[in-house]
């Protein structure tokens, strides 16, 4: 089954609004501009904007008669009922890696700590995406430090330090 941009965008907007509504119920923290609902609210607002943009793109494609999801300038091939190609092994491994990373943060985040787990996860993902080893190392280290700066230092979110507790 094929879902066009209009359908996907129209589905994302109510989801974003539900997340925004739910995150408003999070408790407020006295003396702070932001609380636990701040980041989910930002993500929900961005998701709503992306959903609206995607739906608008779908409406434009429908108005000009293009096949759903076809890049601009492509003519429809007339076979909009063609089945989606079966998942490739690489795609399945990518999904498995994403689930494994989520489970690793859930179950090993306190033991290994945010920094080591984030660095290892990003390194594996970038290597899996066939980036060069030096580029992957640099990007994983740089993003880990950027996340630390954002969450631990600027937003004052307590991150699990794991074995780096005495170092950081």
Outline of the structure:
This protein is mainly alpha-helical. The protein is 64% helix and 0% strand.
Describe the structure.
This protein has 168 residues and is mostly helical. It has 2 domains: 5-64; 89-164, no CATH class. The chain is 64% helix and 0% strand. It has helices spanning 5-23, 38-64, 89-112, 114-128, 133-154. Helix 3 runs antiparallel to helix 4 and helix 4 (114-128) runs antiparallel to helix 5. The chain starts with a helix and ends in a 14-residue tail after the last helix.
Task: Determine the mean pLDDT.
Answer: 84
Task: Count structural domains.
Answer: 2
Helix content: 55-70%
SS strand fraction: under 5%
Structural class: mainly alpha
Cα-atom radius of gyration: 21 Å
Q: Spans with pLDDT under 50 lasting ≥5 residues?
A: none
Q: N- to C-terminal separation?
A: 50 Å
Keywords:
2 domains, 64% helix, 5 helices, single chain, 168 residues, mainly alpha
How would the blueprint of this fold be written?
Elements: H1 5-23, H2 38-64, H3 89-112, H4 114-128, H5 133-154
């Amino acid at each position: 089954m094929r879902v066009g941009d209009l359908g996907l965008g129209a589905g994302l907007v109510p989801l974003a609004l539900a997340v925004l509504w739910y995150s408003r119920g999070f408790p407020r923290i006295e003396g702070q501009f932001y609380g636990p609902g701040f980041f989910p609210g930002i993500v929900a607002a961005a998701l709503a904007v992306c959903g609206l943009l995607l739906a608008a793109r779908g409406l434009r494609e429908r108005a000009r008669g293009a096949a759903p999801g076809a890049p601009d300038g492509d003519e429809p091939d007339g076979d909009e009922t063609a089945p989606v190609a079966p998942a490739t092994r690489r795609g399945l491994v990518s999904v498995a890696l994403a689930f494994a990373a989520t489970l690793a943060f859930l179950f090993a985040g306190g033991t290994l700590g945010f920094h080591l787990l984030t660095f290892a996860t990003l390194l594996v993902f970038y290597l899996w995406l066939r980036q060069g080893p030096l580029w992957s190392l640099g990007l994983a280290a740089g993003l880990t430090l950027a996340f630390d700066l954002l969450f631990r230092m600027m937003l004052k979110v307590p991150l699990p330090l794991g074995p780096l507790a005495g170092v950081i």
